[in-house]
Write a structure and sequence with these properties.
The protein is α/β, with parallel strands linked by helices and 315 residues long. The protein is 33% helix and 20% strand. It has helices at 9-22, 24-28, 44-48, 57-68, 81-88, 120-129, 162-167, 195-206, 238-249, 266-271, 300-313, and strands at residues 39-42, 72-76, 96-99, 104-107, 112-115, 137-140, 149-151, 172-174, 188-193, 215-221, 226-232, 256-260, 274-277, 291-292. The protein has an eight-stranded mixed beta sheet with strand order 5-4-3-2-1-12-13-14, sandwiched between helices. Helix 1 packs across helix 11 and helix 4 (57-68) runs parallel beside helix 11 (300-313). The protein is globular and about 55 Å long.
Length: 315
Protein backbone atom coordinates (compact mmCIF):
# COMPACT_ATOMS: atom_id res chain seq x y z
CA UNK A 1 0.00 0.00 0.00
CA UNK A 2 1.31 3.43 -0.89
CA UNK A 3 2.18 5.70 2.03
CA UNK A 4 -0.56 8.19 2.88
CA UNK A 5 0.27 11.91 3.11
CA UNK A 6 -0.08 13.25 6.69
CA UNK A 7 -3.05 15.46 5.75
CA UNK A 8 -5.09 12.68 4.10
CA UNK A 9 -8.30 11.36 5.61
CA UNK A 10 -6.98 7.79 5.64
CA UNK A 11 -3.81 8.85 7.46
CA UNK A 12 -5.77 10.79 10.09
CA UNK A 13 -8.21 7.90 10.58
CA UNK A 14 -5.49 5.31 11.18
CA UNK A 15 -3.41 7.69 13.29
CA UNK A 16 -6.50 8.30 15.44
CA UNK A 17 -7.07 4.57 15.89
CA UNK A 18 -3.44 3.98 16.81
CA UNK A 19 -3.51 6.82 19.35
CA UNK A 20 -6.73 5.60 20.97
CA UNK A 21 -5.40 2.05 21.27
CA UNK A 22 -2.36 3.42 23.07
CA UNK A 23 -4.31 5.59 25.51
CA UNK A 24 -7.50 3.53 25.62
CA UNK A 25 -7.72 2.91 29.38
CA UNK A 26 -6.53 6.35 30.59
CA UNK A 27 -8.61 8.24 28.03
CA UNK A 28 -11.93 6.60 28.77
CA UNK A 29 -11.52 4.92 32.15
CA UNK A 30 -13.63 1.94 31.10
CA UNK A 31 -13.11 -1.80 30.84
CA UNK A 32 -12.43 -3.29 27.40
CA UNK A 33 -15.57 -4.27 25.49
CA UNK A 34 -16.90 -7.58 26.76
CA UNK A 35 -19.21 -8.48 23.87
CA UNK A 36 -18.78 -8.26 20.10
CA UNK A 37 -20.77 -5.62 18.26
CA UNK A 38 -23.65 -7.15 16.26
CA UNK A 39 -25.51 -3.97 15.24
CA UNK A 40 -24.11 -0.57 14.24
CA UNK A 41 -26.58 2.35 14.19
CA UNK A 42 -25.40 5.35 12.18
CA UNK A 43 -26.90 8.79 11.87
CA UNK A 44 -26.56 10.19 8.34
CA UNK A 45 -26.24 13.99 8.24
CA UNK A 46 -23.29 15.31 10.22
CA UNK A 47 -22.16 11.76 10.96
CA UNK A 48 -21.96 9.38 8.00
CA UNK A 49 -21.77 12.24 5.48
CA UNK A 50 -19.14 14.95 5.44
CA UNK A 51 -19.96 18.66 5.54
CA UNK A 52 -20.38 18.66 1.76
CA UNK A 53 -23.01 15.89 2.05
CA UNK A 54 -20.61 13.41 0.49
CA UNK A 55 -19.93 9.84 1.63
CA UNK A 56 -16.23 9.42 2.47
CA UNK A 57 -14.63 6.36 0.89
CA UNK A 58 -13.26 5.30 4.27
CA UNK A 59 -16.79 5.19 5.72
CA UNK A 60 -18.02 3.12 2.79
CA UNK A 61 -15.19 0.61 3.16
CA UNK A 62 -15.71 0.31 6.91
CA UNK A 63 -19.44 -0.38 6.51
CA UNK A 64 -18.76 -3.01 3.87
CA UNK A 65 -16.17 -4.64 6.11
CA UNK A 66 -18.61 -4.68 9.03
CA UNK A 67 -21.38 -6.27 6.94
CA UNK A 68 -18.90 -8.82 5.61
CA UNK A 69 -18.18 -9.78 9.24
CA UNK A 70 -21.88 -10.43 9.82
CA UNK A 71 -22.57 -7.15 11.64
CA UNK A 72 -25.93 -5.53 10.84
CA UNK A 73 -25.69 -1.85 9.89
CA UNK A 74 -28.67 0.48 10.29
CA UNK A 75 -28.96 4.03 9.01
CA UNK A 76 -30.91 5.84 11.72
CA UNK A 77 -31.99 9.23 10.48
CA UNK A 78 -34.54 12.02 10.53
CA UNK A 79 -34.71 11.80 6.74
CA UNK A 80 -37.67 10.29 4.90
CA UNK A 81 -37.10 6.85 3.41
CA UNK A 82 -36.72 8.09 -0.19
CA UNK A 83 -34.35 10.86 0.87
CA UNK A 84 -32.30 8.44 2.96
CA UNK A 85 -32.24 5.83 0.20
CA UNK A 86 -30.20 8.17 -2.00
CA UNK A 87 -27.41 7.58 0.53
CA UNK A 88 -28.16 3.90 1.12
CA UNK A 89 -27.90 3.25 -2.62
CA UNK A 90 -24.25 4.38 -2.48
CA UNK A 91 -23.50 1.47 -0.13
CA UNK A 92 -23.63 -1.87 -2.03
CA UNK A 93 -24.67 -4.12 0.85
CA UNK A 94 -27.81 -4.87 2.87
CA UNK A 95 -28.87 -2.10 5.27
CA UNK A 96 -31.64 -1.57 7.79
CA UNK A 97 -33.18 1.91 7.55
CA UNK A 98 -34.76 3.54 10.59
CA UNK A 99 -36.15 6.75 9.16
CA UNK A 100 -38.29 9.74 10.14
CA UNK A 101 -36.61 9.73 13.57
CA UNK A 102 -37.91 6.24 14.28
CA UNK A 103 -41.40 6.38 12.80
CA UNK A 104 -40.58 3.80 10.09
CA UNK A 105 -38.24 0.84 9.77
CA UNK A 106 -37.61 -0.46 6.28
CA UNK A 107 -35.16 -2.61 4.42
CA UNK A 108 -33.14 -0.97 1.72
CA UNK A 109 -35.48 -2.52 -0.86
CA UNK A 110 -38.46 -0.70 0.67
CA UNK A 111 -40.02 -3.55 2.67
CA UNK A 112 -41.68 -2.10 5.80
CA UNK A 113 -40.98 -3.77 9.16
CA UNK A 114 -42.27 -1.22 11.68
CA UNK A 115 -44.54 1.80 11.23
CA UNK A 116 -45.94 4.26 13.77
CA UNK A 117 -47.96 7.13 12.29
CA UNK A 118 -48.91 10.37 14.03
CA UNK A 119 -52.66 10.41 14.70
CA UNK A 120 -54.45 12.80 12.35
CA UNK A 121 -56.27 14.53 15.22
CA UNK A 122 -52.99 15.20 17.02
CA UNK A 123 -51.61 16.86 13.90
CA UNK A 124 -54.77 18.95 13.47
CA UNK A 125 -54.66 20.13 17.08
CA UNK A 126 -51.01 21.09 16.84
CA UNK A 127 -51.37 23.01 13.58
CA UNK A 128 -53.97 25.13 15.36
CA UNK A 129 -51.85 25.48 18.49
CA UNK A 130 -48.79 26.47 16.43
CA UNK A 131 -50.52 29.12 14.30
CA UNK A 132 -47.58 31.52 14.67
CA UNK A 133 -45.30 29.02 12.94
CA UNK A 134 -47.45 27.89 9.99
CA UNK A 135 -45.02 29.33 7.46
CA UNK A 136 -42.39 26.80 8.45
CA UNK A 137 -44.76 23.84 8.78
CA UNK A 138 -45.07 20.73 6.62
CA UNK A 139 -46.80 17.37 6.82
CA UNK A 140 -44.94 14.19 5.83
CA UNK A 141 -46.92 11.17 4.61
CA UNK A 142 -46.09 7.53 3.90
CA UNK A 143 -46.84 7.63 0.17
CA UNK A 144 -45.20 6.06 -2.85
CA UNK A 145 -43.93 9.23 -4.49
CA UNK A 146 -46.00 12.37 -5.07
CA UNK A 147 -47.30 14.47 -2.17
CA UNK A 148 -45.07 12.90 0.45
CA UNK A 149 -44.20 16.33 1.88
CA UNK A 150 -46.95 18.96 1.92
CA UNK A 151 -46.36 22.63 2.74
CA UNK A 152 -48.86 25.42 3.12
CA UNK A 153 -46.31 27.89 1.71
CA UNK A 154 -43.20 27.19 -0.34
CA UNK A 155 -40.49 29.77 -0.88
CA UNK A 156 -38.22 28.17 -3.45
CA UNK A 157 -35.68 30.95 -2.97
CA UNK A 158 -35.34 30.53 0.80
CA UNK A 159 -31.58 29.90 1.23
CA UNK A 160 -32.15 27.64 4.26
CA UNK A 161 -34.69 25.36 2.57
CA UNK A 162 -33.74 25.65 -1.11
CA UNK A 163 -31.21 22.74 -1.18
CA UNK A 164 -33.74 20.37 0.41
CA UNK A 165 -36.60 21.60 -1.76
CA UNK A 166 -34.65 21.16 -4.98
CA UNK A 167 -33.42 17.66 -4.05
CA UNK A 168 -36.96 16.58 -3.15
CA UNK A 169 -39.01 18.53 -5.70
CA UNK A 170 -40.82 15.46 -7.07
CA UNK A 171 -42.08 14.52 -3.59
CA UNK A 172 -43.30 17.98 -2.55
CA UNK A 173 -46.77 19.54 -2.83
CA UNK A 174 -48.45 22.73 -1.64
CA UNK A 175 -51.94 22.79 -0.06
CA UNK A 176 -53.55 25.72 1.72
CA UNK A 177 -54.77 25.58 4.38
CA UNK A 178 -52.46 22.83 5.57
CA UNK A 179 -55.30 21.18 7.49
CA UNK A 180 -56.87 20.19 4.14
CA UNK A 181 -53.91 17.91 3.49
CA UNK A 182 -54.79 15.73 6.49
CA UNK A 183 -56.84 13.12 4.65
CA UNK A 184 -54.95 10.34 6.50
CA UNK A 185 -52.58 9.90 9.43
CA UNK A 186 -49.20 11.49 8.57
CA UNK A 187 -45.79 10.18 9.54
CA UNK A 188 -44.95 13.52 11.10
CA UNK A 189 -45.62 17.21 11.37
CA UNK A 190 -42.43 19.12 10.67
CA UNK A 191 -41.30 22.68 11.44
CA UNK A 192 -38.13 24.27 10.11
CA UNK A 193 -36.44 27.66 10.11
CA UNK A 194 -33.74 29.63 11.87
CA UNK A 195 -32.52 28.30 15.25
CA UNK A 196 -33.90 31.41 16.97
CA UNK A 197 -37.41 30.89 15.62
CA UNK A 198 -37.27 27.12 16.13
CA UNK A 199 -36.22 27.51 19.77
CA UNK A 200 -39.40 29.52 20.29
CA UNK A 201 -41.41 26.93 18.35
CA UNK A 202 -39.91 24.13 20.44
CA UNK A 203 -40.99 25.93 23.61
CA UNK A 204 -44.51 26.27 22.22
CA UNK A 205 -44.67 22.58 21.28
CA UNK A 206 -43.47 21.47 24.71
CA UNK A 207 -46.23 23.61 26.26
CA UNK A 208 -48.98 22.21 24.00
CA UNK A 209 -52.12 20.96 25.82
CA UNK A 210 -51.82 17.59 24.09
CA UNK A 211 -48.08 17.22 24.85
CA UNK A 212 -48.43 13.56 25.88
CA UNK A 213 -49.90 12.63 22.48
CA UNK A 214 -46.69 13.17 20.51
CA UNK A 215 -42.91 12.87 20.66
CA UNK A 216 -40.56 15.65 19.57
CA UNK A 217 -37.22 15.23 17.78
CA UNK A 218 -35.09 18.37 17.51
CA UNK A 219 -32.09 19.04 15.29
CA UNK A 220 -30.11 22.28 15.36
CA UNK A 221 -27.45 23.28 12.82
CA UNK A 222 -26.28 26.60 14.20
CA UNK A 223 -23.43 26.84 11.67
CA UNK A 224 -26.06 26.69 8.89
CA UNK A 225 -28.55 28.95 10.68
CA UNK A 226 -31.10 26.17 10.32
CA UNK A 227 -33.11 23.92 12.64
CA UNK A 228 -35.86 21.27 12.38
CA UNK A 229 -38.53 20.08 14.77
CA UNK A 230 -40.21 16.75 13.99
CA UNK A 231 -43.49 15.89 15.70
CA UNK A 232 -43.97 12.12 15.60
CA UNK A 233 -45.91 9.29 17.26
CA UNK A 234 -45.54 9.43 21.07
CA UNK A 235 -43.72 6.08 21.19
CA UNK A 236 -41.16 7.10 18.59
CA UNK A 237 -37.59 8.28 18.80
CA UNK A 238 -34.40 7.01 17.23
CA UNK A 239 -33.56 5.26 20.49
CA UNK A 240 -37.02 3.84 21.13
CA UNK A 241 -37.29 2.33 17.68
CA UNK A 242 -33.71 1.08 17.80
CA UNK A 243 -34.63 -0.72 21.03
CA UNK A 244 -37.72 -2.26 19.39
CA UNK A 245 -35.68 -3.39 16.40
CA UNK A 246 -32.91 -4.82 18.60
CA UNK A 247 -35.49 -6.85 20.54
CA UNK A 248 -36.89 -8.23 17.27
CA UNK A 249 -33.42 -9.16 16.11
CA UNK A 250 -32.33 -10.64 19.45
CA UNK A 251 -29.55 -8.13 20.18
CA UNK A 252 -28.68 -6.95 23.68
CA UNK A 253 -27.76 -3.32 24.31
CA UNK A 254 -24.14 -4.33 24.86
CA UNK A 255 -24.01 -5.63 21.30
CA UNK A 256 -25.04 -2.29 19.77
CA UNK A 257 -22.85 0.64 18.77
CA UNK A 258 -24.46 3.97 17.85
CA UNK A 259 -22.78 7.00 16.31
CA UNK A 260 -24.37 10.46 16.16
CA UNK A 261 -23.83 14.19 16.24
CA UNK A 262 -27.06 16.02 17.12
CA UNK A 263 -29.84 16.29 19.68
CA UNK A 264 -32.17 13.88 17.89
CA UNK A 265 -29.48 11.22 18.43
CA UNK A 266 -29.56 11.42 22.24
CA UNK A 267 -32.03 8.59 22.87
CA UNK A 268 -30.20 6.35 20.40
CA UNK A 269 -26.87 7.03 22.10
CA UNK A 270 -28.40 6.48 25.54
CA UNK A 271 -29.79 3.10 24.49
CA UNK A 272 -26.67 1.75 22.78
CA UNK A 273 -24.17 -0.14 24.90
CA UNK A 274 -21.41 1.61 22.96
CA UNK A 275 -22.34 5.24 22.20
CA UNK A 276 -19.90 7.28 20.11
CA UNK A 277 -20.20 10.99 19.33
CA UNK A 278 -18.61 12.82 16.45
CA UNK A 279 -15.92 15.46 17.04
CA UNK A 280 -18.27 17.89 15.26
CA UNK A 281 -21.21 16.98 17.54
CA UNK A 282 -23.24 19.64 19.32
CA UNK A 283 -21.85 20.57 22.73
CA UNK A 284 -24.68 18.86 24.62
CA UNK A 285 -23.58 15.42 23.37
CA UNK A 286 -20.01 15.92 24.56
CA UNK A 287 -20.94 16.30 28.22
CA UNK A 288 -22.26 12.75 28.73
CA UNK A 289 -18.88 11.04 28.92
CA UNK A 290 -19.39 9.07 25.71
CA UNK A 291 -16.53 8.04 23.47
CA UNK A 292 -15.62 10.56 20.78
CA UNK A 293 -14.41 9.83 17.27
CA UNK A 294 -13.06 12.03 14.48
CA UNK A 295 -15.24 14.63 12.75
CA UNK A 296 -17.47 13.86 9.77
CA UNK A 297 -14.89 15.55 7.53
CA UNK A 298 -12.23 13.08 8.71
CA UNK A 299 -14.22 9.84 8.37
CA UNK A 300 -15.09 9.57 12.04
CA UNK A 301 -17.55 6.76 11.30
CA UNK A 302 -14.77 4.66 9.75
CA UNK A 303 -12.51 5.32 12.72
CA UNK A 304 -15.23 4.23 15.18
CA UNK A 305 -16.17 1.10 13.23
CA UNK A 306 -12.56 0.01 12.78
CA UNK A 307 -11.65 0.55 16.42
CA UNK A 308 -14.75 -0.57 18.30
CA UNK A 309 -16.62 -2.96 15.99
CA UNK A 310 -14.09 -4.62 13.72
CA UNK A 311 -11.33 -4.70 16.28
CA UNK A 312 -13.66 -6.12 18.93
CA UNK A 313 -15.11 -8.72 16.59
CA UNK A 314 -11.64 -10.24 16.21
CA UNK A 315 -11.42 -11.06 19.93
Amino acid sequence: MDAQPPDSTAYKTHAFIARLRYVYQPAFGVEPLSMPIRLIALDIDGTLLNSSSGLPDANLRAIQAAVARGIEVALVTGRRFDFARTIADLIPCPLTMIVNNGALVRSKDGATHLRNLLPRQTALDLIGHMSDYRRGAALVFDRLRENQVVYEEIDWQDPRRRPYLLRNREFIAQISPLEDALTEDPIQLMYSGSPKIMHAAETALRAAPNRESFSLAVTYYDHMDFAMLDVIHPRCSKGGTLADWAARRGYSRDEIMAVGDNLNDVEMLEFAGLPVVMANAVAELKTAGWRETLSNDHAGVAAAIELYALGNSEN
